[in-house]
Amino acid sequence: MINECGAPKVTLDPFGPGGHSAFARIARVAMRGLSVAVPTVSSVRILHCSDWHLGRSFHRVDLLATQARYLDHLVEVVRAEQVDVVLVAGDVYDRALPAVDAVTLLDEGLHRLVSAGARVIVSSGNHDSARRLGFNARLLSAAGLHIRTDPTGAGEPVLLADEHGPVAFYPLPYLEPALAAGPLAAERSHLGVMSAAVDRVRANLRTHAGARSVVAAHAFVFGAAASDSERELTAGGLGQVPLGLFEGFDYVALGHLHGRQTLAEPVRYSGSPLAFSFSEADHHKGSWLVTLDAKGLAAVEPVPAPVPRRLARLRGNLAEVLSSPRFTAQEDAWVQVTLTDQQRPAEPMEQLRKRFPHLLELRLEPERSGLAGPVSYTERIAGRPDLEVCCGFLEHVRGRTATPAETLLLQQALEAAMIESMEGVAAGPAYQDLAAIYPEVLQPGRSA
Predict the structure, then answer these.
(1) Which helix (H) or strand (E) element contains residue 336?
(2) Does residue 411 sit in the same domain as residue 270?
(3) In what side-by-side order are the strands of the sheet with 251-255?
(4) Residues 405, 420: contact at Cβ < 8 Å?
(5) N or C: which end of the chain has fewer CB within 10 A?
(6) How far apart, in whole angstroms, are the C-alpha atoms of residue 99 and residue 91?
(7) pLDDT confidence band for 4 (50 / 70 / 90)
(8) HSE (CB half, 13 Å, CA atoms) of 263?
């Protein structure tokens, strides 16, 4: 259990009658005008999660009710495991302008988590609108909800304490290089901005002698496994940062990738609580329950998330998929079927849904000899970065490769399209920067 550093100043009970945490007890006693000693406890318990993506659907299946059940699950874990801090490492929403129902769900979920006795620490991800998510953050922090969305606040921790001393939490928001490089005085790259932010964290941590440290970051770290449902962080495919960047912290809570995974004992992705693509059919969804003792990281335990419906990927010709007993166990699952028939069957979806009522995706991949090359454009570009696809198209239509200037123009156009989805950011500056570097590319009337 933990309490906020310094004497509590409380005007109302933000935790409700069911609050269990040490800080909740202090708050209630303080309201009655009594004094209370800082509780002596042996460990700090943190629930690390990320990538809620509230408002997202799965192949047109509305997931909002399922996401509400997941938040119910988190509240139950907080109470049952006496969690002190719920740490959410980005992508709370699925889009910068979330639907009203998603906003309502987040409001209710955060209120219930705080009411259950936990401090809640949230950082923004690449799907979130940092400005909108961060609205009123300073006021909310007084009630136990700490939202961090400003890159310049990277070196400003949320400080909590137990009997062993302070615990410094550094929730880093997603750092888009085009937006964060200036405020952080960093190189305009993912490595540049993340390195600058971590430098600020280390500089601040040196001022808190003996403090245990927890860093949250929304990033793609080298060595981690991606899935089909994450949004690419950079047009050029250079959005990864090295694992060594996070060396020396007691725990690093990562977000962005949707598979729960361990990169090093103290460096982990919690993954998304729900599957958002069939590439996640084999994932074990959930969060991490992290325990800190006097020396730092003491234990990390997986906490499984509730599964609304299993995912299944089936492959074969239509007759086989419709009749084979080996697919019986998948009849109640959300199903992706890949048909290998040489000719497209008539009304395949209608036939398949008689056996698999929750069929969501149908793919057609006719079997062919190993000597045959790709037969479709989709196959030729599968897995290639957006910039490579654009440059390849340019080469295809005019018969020569893109020049360095043209490649840079395409890259910045892709970056501008990515940034356009973020709040209040125009594409103009990116093109102005390019014009200063390669003015001949952007001259009116001159073809590329």
Answers:
(1) strand 334-339
(2) no
(3) 3-4, 158-162, 165-171, 212-218, 251-255, 267-269, 261-264
(4) no
(5) C
(6) 15
(7) low
(8) 27
Using CA atoms, how far apart are residues 387 and 63, in angstroms rounded to an integer? 32
Statement to judge: residues 258 and 390 lie in one domain: no
Task: Count CB neighbours of 38 within 10 A.
Answer: 15
**Tally of CB atoms within 10 A around 136:** 9
DSSP symbol at 367: -
- Please state, in angstroms and as integers, the Cα–Cα distance from residue 145 to each residue in 88, 138, 288, following that order: 11, 9, 20
Q: How far apart are CA 334 and CA 79, in angstroms?
A: 32
pLDDT at 119 > cutoff 70: yes
Is residue 375, in this structure, part of any structural domain at all? Answer: no
> Does residue 402 have a pLDDT over 70?
yes
201 and 154 Cβ atoms separated by less than 8 Å = yes
Four-CA torsion 275, 251, 130, 3, nearest 10 degrees: 110
336: containing domain: 311-367
Most confident of the ranges 49-58, 235-244, 388-397, 438-447: 49-58
Look up residue 326 and give its DSSP letter: G
Phi, psi (deg, nearest 5) at residue 362: -120, 125
Would you give the distance in Å from CA 22 to the centre of its chain?
A: 29
Residues 269 and 395 in one domain: no
Beta-bridge partners for 299: 291
Indicate the residue among 285, 304, 323 that finishes a domain.
304
Q: Determine how many CB atoms are found less than 10 A away from the CB of residue 59.
A: 13
C-alpha 415/C-alpha 78 separation (Å) is 39
